[in-house]
Amino acid sequence: MKKMKVFLTRRLHDFALKELKKKYQVEVHSGKIPIPKTKLRSKIKDIDGLICFPYDIIDKELIDLGKNLKVISTYSVGFDHIDVEYARKKKIRVGYTPEVLTDATADLAFSLMIDVMRRVSEGDRTIRAGKWKEIYGAYDYVGVDLQRKTLGILGLGRIGGTLAKRAKAFDMKIIYHNRKPVSKTREKRLGAKYVSFEKLISQSDVISLHVPHTKQTDQLFDKKLFAKMKKTAFLINTARGKIINEKDLASALKKKTIAGAGLDVFAQEPINKNHTFIKISNVVLAPHIGSSTDETRAKMAEITVKNLDHGIKGKKPTYSVGF
Ligand code: DGY
Rounded to the nearest whole angstrom, what is the distance from the C-alpha of residue 232 to the centroid of ligand 1? Predict the structure, then answer.
């Protein structure tokens, strides 16, 4: 019997590829990342399953070209790069990888927070530029304490909740905002207090974003919001870059409207060395590595393959978006 065709827009772990190759005719894109749209357009035409990554925009046009496409399995918890509604209409299953990356992503959010508040990366950049001797004064290079500061979590879901656990151990005060408050038991366990969005913005010493990118959150953090934050506040983003208006953030950081930021995600990825953030010292940049630990990435690969396996056979993926 002819094997079904699976295309990957980037290389996955060897064990995952081996597993896929047992059952399918597999092709992996090599070369420029993200895969050029023209190439993806031509590949999608005769494949049964697609494994993609957050950089790949899977829109209506692409979905329409996938005449045999049965499943889109994304190697990520976020799926805002896929037109999920349209895929559902076309009876194409969509799989994703939640849960397994919760700890790793919360750890990264926390590490960005410590980094920017204690100026670790900034110090590293200073040393590498041969400028250590310029920072010997008692007031030079001071950061701020984490303990007793208020952490505002926007989106107390899995990752936000895990971040709260980390913050509690550092004696931080935790407030959060969700569309709906979580249960009292969960609030108590995490030591988190529900506040309005406005209070979260104005009372937090650090705000960490854990909401998906949607029409409602698109460019939510703009100059109007930065003006309402404390001048001493920090912004951490491990969710999605488009939740922030980057031009406004760059200007807020330069003018010290807010104290600093730690960013793992950007509106367009990857960013290059001419990006507006590169020359700003009070921002720590990470190359979208929220889930990037050996253990987590292996688990994500396992789920990505399972999701594909199920979807290609017309079954609901283990972790399914929609049906
Ligand atoms: C995801 O999987 O969507 C995360 O952004 C990875 O860091």
Answer: 28
Task: Give the active site residues.
Answer: 240, 269, 288
- In short, whether 78's Cβ falls inside 6 Å of ligand 1 is yes
* CB of 77 sitting under 6 A from ligand 1: yes
32 has pLDDT over 90: no
Atom of ligand 1 nearest to the CA of 96: 2
- Which atom of ligand 1 is the closest one to the Cα of 79? 3
pLDDT reading at 159 higher than 90: yes
Domains of the chain with CATH codes: 5-98+295-321 (3.40.50.720), 102-285 (3.40.50.720)
Q: What's at 75, amino acid-wise?
A: Y
Tell me the per-residue pLDDT of 280-301, one tens digit each, with 9 for 90 and over.
999 999 999 999 999 999 999 9
The model's pLDDT over 188-205, given as tens digits with 9 standing for 90+, comes to 999 999 999 999 999 999
Could you tell me the distance, in angstroms and rounded to a whole number, from the CA of residue 179 to the centre of ligand 1?
22
What integer pLDDT is reported at residue 138 of this predicted model?
82
Task: Verify whether ligand 1 is closer than 6 Å to residue 245 (CB atom).
Answer: no
Q: CA-to-CA distance for 303 and 73, rounded, in angstroms? A: 9
Q: In the block, which residue shows the tokens 């007031």?
A: 139
Phi-psi region of 125 (alpha: psi -120 to 50; beta: other; left: phi over 0): alpha
Q: What spacing in Å lies between the alpha carbon of 78 and ligand 1's midpoint?
A: 6
- The residue length of the chain stands at 323
Nearest to 78 by CA among 248, 179, 217, 230: 217
Task: Name the pTM for this structure.
Answer: 0.94
150 beta partners: 173
Sign of CA dihedral 301, 304, 310, 311: negative
Q: How far apart are CA 205 and CA 188, in angstroms?
A: 21
